[in-house]
Amino acid sequence: MVKHVEEYGADAVDAARKRTRGRRERVPGPSSDPETNLIMADVAMRAGTTILRSAVEKGFLKGRYGSETASEIVSNRSVKKTLTSFALAKLATRSLPGAVLVSGGMLAKTLFDKGRARRARLRGDRRLREQAKND
After folding, report:
1. CA angle (35 as vertex; 33, 40 as ends), nearest 5
2. Is this model's pTM higher than 0.70 or not?
3. d(CA 54, CA 52)
4. Geometric angle at alpha carbon 75, from 71 and 98, rounded to 5°
5. E strands along the chain, which residues?
6. 126/120 Cα distance (integer angstroms)
7. What is the pLDDT of residue 130?
């Protein structure tokens, strides 16, 4: 059976914790409860990830469409597109075969689009401009 990526990380953390036994009287973080600190860290990481994702998405679109249109495109994305993106990201991060499948699909799509560059560019422009107009 394939070992999950998170299991490798958990094993590495356990091994590091065993090698570096520290003082146990003080819990690092703003709270004295380690579970509360874990929740705070999770919220901070998710918020940071959301902000970074939004900035990267807008960055990819800014050069071609401008800042305002790029922001509208990102904010007017459909639920279907958002869920598809989320599902593909989950699949890619859950296992090595998932990562290979998703990256292979992205490579195939890129090569397909390069082969049909002019039509894909015009079709993509039309779709994104329509998406930016939908409010």
Report:
1. 100
2. no
3. 5
4. 105
5. none
6. 10
7. 85
CA distances from 72 to 25, 57, 130 (A): 51, 11, 10
pLDDT in tens, 54-90: 899 999 899 888 989 988 988 888 899 989 998 999 9
Tokens read off for 4 = 């999950």
| Alpha-carbon separation of residue 26 from 17, 22, 48, 117, 123 (angstroms) | 15, 10, 27, 59, 59
Structure tokens at 45: 């990481």
pLDDT greater than 90 at residue 124: no
Spatial separation of the C-alpha atoms in residues 49 and 86, rounded to whole Å: 13
DSSP letter, residue 123: H
Mean pLDDT, rounded, of the chain: 85
Q: Which residue, 135, 113, 128, 123, is CA-closest to 62?
A: 128
Instruction: Label residue 132 exposed, middle or buried (CB < 10 Å: 0-12, 13-18, 19+).
Output: buried
Residue 72, Cβ density class (10 Å: 0-12 exposed, 13-18 middle, ≥19 buried): buried
